[in-house]
Amino acid sequence: MEIESQSSAPILDLQNVRKVFKYDILKPKQTVIKNLSCAFPTGTCTGLLGHNGAGKTTTIRLILGLLKPDAGSIIFEGKKIGTEAKAAIGYMPEINKLPGGLTVEEVLNHHLSVFMPEQFKNSVARKDAVTKKIEEVQLSKHRGKKIGKLSKGMARRVAWAQATIHQPRLLILDEPSSGLDPLGRSEMLNWISEEKKRGTSIILCTHELTQISFLCDHFHLLKRGELVMTSMPDAAKSAGPGCILYDWQQKYAVHVSGLDKNLVDKISTERRLTKPARIKETGMSAVLGFDSYETASAWVRELMSAGCMILKFSEEFVLTEEDIANFYRNEA
Amino acid sequence: MNTISRTTRTLSVISWETFVLLRRDKVFVPALVASLLISAFANLASDWSVEDFTKILFDIGFFGFQVTGSLVAIFWGAKIISDSRQEGSLEVQLSAPISRATWIVGKYIGLSLCLITLGVILFVIWQSLMLLNEFGWMTQNQIVCYLFMVLSWLVQGALAIMLASFMGQAIAMFSTLCLWLTGMSSALVANTVSPDSTYLTKAITSGIARFWDFQQFNLVDFIQDNNWLGSQELAYRAAYGVLLILVQISLSVTIFSSRDVNS
Predict the structure, then answer these.
(1) Which chain B residues are closer than 8 Å to A86 by Cβ?
(2) Are the CB atoms for A16 and A72 separated by under 8 Å?
(3) DSSP state letter for B214
């Protein structure tokens, strides 16, 4: 199986990060993150997966500087992460963690003052930006309402607004659609998708694999504080033999039978088509992986003309619940 | 924008936010009502007395204000830190470009603003009461006495913040309360220790009274002109209060910065 190597430079790089919790003098220390090394490429959406207690939230807290690592370093845009670097990060926690006694407008106003003091020195400009964001998340009627009085769905909208109002370069989302109804989930997915299109790097921490499949370009799977599965070759290499490299990049898959090995080269040369990013032979058939829809559909036409039988042409959601469940069952 | 102006901006945002939250806190109005009731009681007691009307008014009223303000300062001090931790807003705020030192100092400034607001409102009530009783405008000594009382609230607020930076709300409040009572009684205890007590007992009680004496801020006994403290003594007492605040806030910053943030 051929897998592409990671090309873009990471916006965030965790290097041998270790975190030990000591809950009680009488209890032994607990290592919750064990020499974790993984990168989050710039401009992409990377999923952070794992069962409850795997260390996802601890990893996020380490990135945000809420917890201090016992070893290792966290590099953001080439420099060790510090207070100033956090101006470029947006964070949306799993549950509503905004001050209940402040109004929607006040929260966003204060947030903007802290994150972007240069651009929003002027209170009028700040107010305009806040109004625009409030309209974007459809909370205009509730702008004067205290956070504590909002419904869960509305509070999630405010959390999204505060995480993105300063146009962060890195957005960390912890279970962004937690507690939302189907409409709210769909809306949230669209917002994340829009943010991704703008080029924001995203770390998406979720249990919902459909979200990972829909939004993410890469993923890291944690188990008991260790990286145990990843879609990124570099991360898999640095994590050691215990980490499984998962063929994730197969975004558009053409399942074909009767494929001659030389045919791929022939079509590619004659028709000047980009070769498939990956070719996986599975018994009588083969799966050709493509990164773009256009290339994949052009290959379907050429393969059909060459007399091959197309068994399936799909957008592959490679990571399935079953895969993860099997993985945990095998590891248990 | 340089670091200083950015820090100043952040400090103003945190302190204003804290001020707004405390102003909307449920305790604010009951504190005002309690103070009004104390004022009314002091007024009645003064009316019913046969002499020293002003002294009785000040003895009862100031004691009431002192207790109310101190309790509010202790409650708010512990609450602003613990609430942020419990509701998780601490996590969101510290994930922003805000240093932990700025956060603690901002919280303290917000608390101080709110306590000063409470002090101003109570001052107006007190002055109205005096005019109602035809005692006239407050004298300079009385105003200084009042300001020292507000300073003691600020000291207790700093103490509560320091303890809440590493304790839960209930324990922080209880500990602050105990330390406040210790401060109120330390000089009294040191002065009344029996001459037969051991050297160690005397050393401990006088040592505590030297470093932890909240009676330094209680000037009610010196309010009469003939008994008033000199300006040097007043400056010393004010500096003592400011020093206590600075030490406590510095300790809060040190403790808070060295610990993990867990909500």
Answers:
(1) 95-97
(2) yes
(3) G
Interface test with A, best of B17, B28, B258, B262 (most A CBs within 10 A): B17
Whether B207 contacts chain A with CB within 8 A = no
Respond yes or no on whether ipTM tops 0.95: no
Contact between A114 and B94 using a beta-carbon 8 Å cutoff: no
Please state, in angstroms and as integers, the Cα–Cα distance from residue A182 to each residue in A79, A186, B105, following that order. Answer: 40, 6, 43
What values do phi and psi take at B35, rounded to 5? -65, -40
B24 in contact with A, Cβ within 8 Å: yes
Sign of dihedral through CA atoms A243, A246, A248, A249? positive
Inform me whether the pLDDT recorded for A27 exceeds 80: no
**Three-state secondary structure along B133-200?**
CCCCCCCHHHHHHHHHHHHHHHHHHHHHHHHHCCCCHHHHHHHHHHHHHHHHHHHHHHHCCCCCCCHH
pLDDT tens-digit map of B167-211: 989 999 999 999 999 999 999 999 998 888 899 999 999 999 999
User: In this complex, which of B6, B87, B96 lies closest to A97 when CB atoms are compared?
Assistant: B87
Helix H segments across A139-291? 152-164, 182-197, 209-215, 233-239, 261-270
Give yes or no for A118 touching B (CB within 8 A).
Answer: yes
Which H or E element spans position A220?
strand A218-223
pLDDT of residue A7 exceeding 50: no
Which of B89, B94, B99 lies at the smallest CB-CB distance from A98? B89
Return the DSSP state at A124.
H
Mean pLDDT to the nearest integer, A239-263: 77
CB B68 within 8 A of CB B34: yes
- Looking at CA atoms only, how far is residue A11 from chain B in angstroms? 17
A38 token code pair: 């993984």
Q: Return the ∠ at Cα B43 (arms to B39 and B46), rounded to 5°.
A: 135
Inter-chain CB proximity A86 and B13 less than 8 Å: no
B92 contacts A162? CB cut-off 8 A: yes
Pairwise CA distance, residues B91 & A314, whole Å: 42
- Is B254 a residue whose pLDDT tops 90? yes
pLDDT tens figures, A257-316: 888 778 888 898 888 888 887 787 777 788 888 877 788 889 999 999 888 899 888 776
User: How far apart (Å, rounded) are the C-alpha atoms in residues A248 and A219?
Assistant: 8
B92:A98 CB<8 A: yes
Query: What is the number of CB-based contacts under 8 A between chain A and chain B?
Result: 81
Element (DSSP H or E) covering residue A81? none
Chain B hits for A110, CB-CB cut-off 8 Å, are 13, 16-17
Distance CA A188, CA B105 (A): 36
Q: Which residues contact A111 (CB under 8 A, 6 or more apart)?
A: A162, A165, A166, B96
- Chain A residues whose beta carbon lies within 8 Å of the beta carbon of residue B87: 97-100
Instruction: Write the residue in A65, A68, A99 that is nearest to B89 by C-beta.
Output: A99
